Amino acid sequence: MKRAHIIPMTGGDELDALTRWRHVYHWKPGTRKAIKRGYSRRQRAMERGQLMRGGELAGA
User: Fold this and answer.
1) Which domain holds residue 53?
2) Would 26 be classed as within a structural domain?
3) Is residue 6 in a domain?
4) Is 0.90 surpassed by the pTM of this model?
5) How far apart are CA 53 and CA 11, in angstroms?
6) Which of 6, 19, 31, 38 has the fewest other C-beta atoms within 10 Å?
7) 25 in the Ramachandran plot: left (φ > 0), alpha (ψ -120 to 50) or beta?
8) pLDDT for the residue 2
9) How far apart are CA 29 and CA 35, in angstroms?
10) Number of compact structural domains in the chain
C-alpha cells in the first residue's frame, strides 16, 4: 500500500513534484530530487519533534 503524504505540502512546486502532476511537467535534472529532499527533511524534523515531546511526557 502506498503511503500518503503525512505533512501538508508548501507551495505549488511540491504539489506538482510529489503528486501525479510530475508526469505532466518537464523537470530539469535534479530539480525534483531537491524538492523531494526538502519535503523529506521537513517531515523527519516534524516526526523527530513529536518523538521528543512524547519522550518528555513519558519520562515525567
Assistant:
1) 34-60
2) no
3) no
4) no
5) 28
6) 6
7) beta
8) 59
9) 12
10) 1
For residue 41, what are the contacts with CB-CB under 8 A and spacing of at least 6?
Answer: none
Distance CA 49, CA 29 (A): 32
Residue with cell 519520562: 59
Mind listing the pLDDT tens digit for each residue in 8-52?
A: 888 888 989 988 888 999 989 999 999 999 999 999 998 888 888
Q: And the C-alpha cell for 13?
A: 512546486
Buried b (16+ CB within 10 A) or exposed e, 22-45: eeeeeeeeeebeebeeebeeeeee
Residue 1 located in a structural domain: no
Q: Is residue 38 in some structural domain? A: yes
